[in-house]
Amino acid sequence: MVCCITALTSCSQPTPSSETSQAKETTETPKFSGPWAEEFRQAFESAPTDEIREYLRNEEITEVEKQAVTEAFRNCLTSQGLTFDDFNNDGSFGFGFASVTDPDKANLITNECQASTGVDQVISLYFHIQGNPGNKDLSEEIAACMIRSKTVPPEFTIDPSKSDLFAGLFLKDEVQAWAAYNTCTADPIGSFND
User: Fold this and answer.
1) What is the pLDDT of residue 5?
2) What's the CA gap between 121 and 123, in Å, rounded?
3) If DSSP codes are grouped into helix, strand and coil, which group holds residue 95?
4) Are strands 3-6 and 82-87 parallel, antiparallel or unpaired?
5) What is the domain partition of the chain in residue ranges?
6) Which of 15, 48, 52, 192 is the most exposed, fewest CB within 10 Å of its CB?
7) Distances (CA, A) of 58 to 30, 61, 172
8) Does the structure show a pLDDT above 60 at 114?
9) Which residues of 145-164 are buried (b: 16+ CB within 10 A; e: fewer)?
10) Has this prediction a pTM greater than 0.70?
């Protein structure tokens, strides 16, 4: 069995189908006002179903709602020949190849399941809120964590204006740096403190 790891981000949303676009036209976006208001607005407007929009409407994502999306995603993947256990604490996940052997097809299936089940809207937002309820800028803490991980040099900083986060500054390889970044984003204070 081959396994693939994928990290979720809330930077981009899939292009909605015409069916979901028509459904969204009839659903007014709530006036979100909490620390994650803009992220909830984007997630609400790109949500594939009314059920996902209802999960987002109150600016909270409960464990039950996260689990419902997780189960829908698992069912979507397994029905198409892939395996999936659960999301990691940073929102990333791995999947295995049960009957699908083509990695490109597996990635296509995964992307389609993410888009159709609400993973793109609910899961990364759920984990971001768990790790940073007040949506504070943690770039200094994340940079310090990355330095502690020893995957970047001591002068590393996070500059959101750069398109290349690491700009070739790896002490190890890029895969290890991204894995450390996912860990540091989930828990910038507690990670790599050994």
Assistant:
1) 42
2) 6
3) strand
4) unpaired
5) 3-131, 139-186
6) 15
7) 9, 8, 42
8) yes
9) bbbbbebbeeebebeeeeee
10) yes
